[in-house]
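> example.struct
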């Protein structure tokens, strides 16, 4: 069982019941929440993945930056930081964050993800994203996930296309990355698109 590091509440531990009983799952990866105990391994993998990540993303490279990054997930009702780990070894293959969770009539979150170089190209992130979609739609009961991707990031575009995301448009100067405002394509997927609709909607969804 994944520890919740003292954070109280219900949704922050939602990944535990999601994974319970999935031991027979054929996936080569599993998910867990990122914690302060992951700092050293995470930073080492980020440093080993500089060529893979540049110029598409900027991840923490120092302990101080990691702790600031981790603080984004203090409130799991608004964001979740998940690690994709190789099931057999526990090694981190990458991370997938569900950011900007909005409830009410929107029931949506924004995805951000990165593979780590030592295990990149082996399909682990694709399997991890599949688990995250199931987790977000089954357990968190979100309706929609979106991803913003730079047009030149072909690996990332192929990843979302493989999982059935639809193209929704082009946004110039959308995100500040690597010292400049970068253009991004917007891709999204809903629970209805992949047939994972909860029998009981999230309690924050209005009746009408």
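> example.seq
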């Amino acid at each position: 069982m994944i520890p919740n590091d003292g954070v109280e509440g219900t949704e922050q531990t939602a990944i535990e019941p999601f994974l319970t009983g999935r031991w027979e799952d054929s996936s080569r990866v599993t998910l867990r929440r990122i914690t302060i105990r992951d700092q050293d391994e995470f930073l080492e993998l980020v440093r080993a993945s500089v060529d893979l990540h540049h110029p598409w993303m900027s991840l923490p490279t120092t302990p101080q930056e990691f702790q600031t990054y981790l603080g984004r997930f203090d409130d799991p009702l608004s964001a979740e930081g998940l690690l994709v780990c190789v099931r057999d070894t526990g090694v981190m293959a990458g991370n997938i964050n569900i950011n900007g969770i909005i409830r009410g009539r929107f029931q949506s979150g924004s995805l951000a993800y990165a593979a780590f170089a030592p295990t990149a190209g082996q399909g682990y992130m694709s399997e991890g994203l599949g688990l995250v979609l199931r987790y977000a739609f089954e357990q968190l009961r979100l309706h929609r996930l979106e991803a913003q991707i730079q047009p030149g990031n072909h690996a990332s575009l192929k990843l979302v296309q493989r999982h059935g995301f639809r193209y929704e448009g082009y946004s110039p100067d959308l995100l500040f990355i690597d010292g400049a405002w970068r253009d991004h394509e917007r891709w999204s997927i809903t629970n209805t698109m992949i047939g994972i609709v909860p029998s009981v909607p999230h309690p924050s969804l209005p009746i009408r």
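> remarks
The longest strand covers residues 166-177.
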